[in-house]
Amino acid sequence: MNKNKRLPNDCFSLPRGITWTPVDQALEQLRKGLSTLTQSERVPVNYCVGRVLATTVYAIVNNPPFTNSAVDGYGFCGPAKGLGNRLELMPGVASAGNPFNGIVSQGSAVKVLTGAVLPDGVDTVFLKEDVESEGNNLISFTGPLKVGANTRSSGEDVKAGEKLFTAGHKIRPQDLALLIATGVAFVDVYSPLKVGILSTGNELLDDGLEYPYLEKKGKVFDSNRPMLLSLIKRWGFQGFDLGAIRDEKKLLRKKLNDASLQVDVIISSGGASSGDEDYVANLIKSEGKLENWRIAIKPGRPLALGLWNGTPIFGLPGNPVAAFVCALIFARPALGLLAGRGWVKPAGYNVMSAFDKTKKPGRREYLRARINEDGNAEIFSSEGSGRISSLSWSSGLLELFEHEEKVSEGQLVRYIPYSSFDL
Ligand code: AMP
Ligand code: MG
User: Fold this and answer.
1) Is the shortest distance between the CB of 220 and ligand 1 below 6 Å?
2) 271 CA distance to ligand 2 middle (Å)
3) 3-state secondary structure of 343
């Protein structure tokens, strides 16, 4: 069981007197209220890709670890000026992993290959293609050539003791190359955040039932749970399938009790508003600690944020489009904080709009969008939040800000590709 650190009881409290919370304020509130829940562990460097560093990491050795040749050629002691320089070629060769044992004196040269330790006496290397052999162990070349040319000096990339990464960095494959090259053998990383995913609603089709039941009984497939579970996995957290449950207090209570012992955070979908049928919000309100966040956002206004036995719960709207958008905009950075990654902001780009649209001021809108052949942003034909197909059609979200009332073709708009959400 991994009940690590705890959040304070008021971590989701919003300032009083606000009816609709602007997105930025909601994000700021999450950022202030949440902190790392997971503990750190030491792992061999080869197992750290995708993990989040818990401490700053420093280089153990220089990269390159020794001065070496950057090319295949001839090493000698520089500088070499002018035309027609001749050098006596010493027998032997320095190659990668096989150093040359002798000393190269002034007026002499030795064959060196890429990656070879520079032999004693050598500080400069001529490219093989720029050298001519004159027979009798003589080579000639055309200068000038700067001292040190075609060599890579020890530590020119990174010096031992230099800072490589700070805590909170999520290790990528290319980071692994740097860690290995600089002699780092172990790193401290946070244990993966355990995230439980729960669906709620009487209309959800029980696992294993087939679609004849859909129309007859008013059932829908549970789209949210697999989608949210795979988002969680993609973001590097450990997903726990908490199943789909009916809107029944008793079932929900038991589920939350069990889950709060098993996971660090619970994400539920459905029943998150403040109506009578919103069982998740109502139960947490009466028996746990709940804040109903009414966020000025489309799609997906209600967000139920609470604590159940000290375990944070993010209650997302049931609508799959709204659940997806709210997961990207709110859950991703919040989970990042809980997991030790710090607050992650998705990178957005200003692109030209390929459409006209009017918009209600005062709320933020996220439209499903993609970039057309001209490099401009087009939006899905319908903004209906039941349009699950729009999620697959799109390659990102257009972020229309609160003050905006109208978007005209050719105007710059903010586009956040799904890749900025690690998707
Ligand atoms: P709710 O937020 O519970 O009021 O649900 C809003 C809409 O989303 C309703 O039409 C639900 O049927 C639908 N919905 C809720 N949960 C899911 C789910 N897991 N998968 C697909 N649709 C859902
Ligand atoms: Mg419901």
Assistant:
1) yes
2) 4
3) coil
Q: Is the pTM of this model over 0.70?
A: yes
State how far Cα 189 lies from the chain centre: 15
Dihedral sign (CA 232, 234, 238, 241) = positive
CB neighbourhood size of 54 (10 A)? 20
State the Cα–Cα distance between residues 44 and 331, nearest whole angstrom: 30
Query: Which residue, 385, 330, 379, is CA-closest to 358?
Result: 379
With tokens 């789209």, the residue in question is: 223
Centre of ligand 1 from the C-alpha of residue 221, in Å: 9
State the Cα–Cα distance between residues 149 and 130, nearest whole angstrom.
13
Q: What average pLDDT does the chain have?
A: 92
Instruction: Check: CB of residue 319 under 8 Å from CB of residue 299.
Output: yes
316 C-alpha to center of ligand 2: Å? 11
Picking from 390, 395, 252, 315, the residue whose alpha carbon sits closest to that of residue 12 is 315
The span from the CA of 279 to the CA of 293, in Å, is 16
Q: Is 215 helix (H, G, I), strand (E, B) or coil?
A: helix
DSSP strands (E only) in 309-409: 311-316, 349-352, 357-358, 364-371, 377-379, 396-400, 406-407
275-310 pLDDT tens trace: 888 888 899 989 988 888 889 999 977 789 999 999
Residue whose Cα lies nearest atom 15 of ligand 1: it is 318
DSSP code, position 318: S
Instruction: Evaluate: CB of 282 within 6 angstroms of ligand 1.
Output: no
How many residues are listed for the chain in this entry? 423
Helix residue ranges per DSSP H, 160-234: 173-181, 212-217, 224-234
Using a 6 Å cutoff on CB, does residue 270 contact ligand 1?
yes
Assigned token pair, 36: 């790392």
Find out whether 227 and 323 touch, Cβ atoms under 8 Å: yes
- pLDDT tens column, 85-123: 788 999 999 999 999 999 999 889 999 999 999 999 999
- Cα-flanking dihedrals φ and ψ of residue 352, to 5°? -85, 140
Q: Which ligand is nearest to the CA of 315?
A: 1
Instruction: Specify the pairing of strand 151-152 against strand 68-69.
Output: antiparallel
Cβ-in-10-Å burial (0-12, 13-18, 19+) of 275 comes to exposed
Contact 228, 327 (CB under 8 A): yes
The token pair that represents 290 in the structure block = 């709940």
pLDDT tens sequence across 126-167: 999 999 888 778 898 877 889 999 999 999 999 999 999 999
Q: Which band of pLDDT confidence, cut at 50, 70 and 90, is reported for residue 2?
A: very low
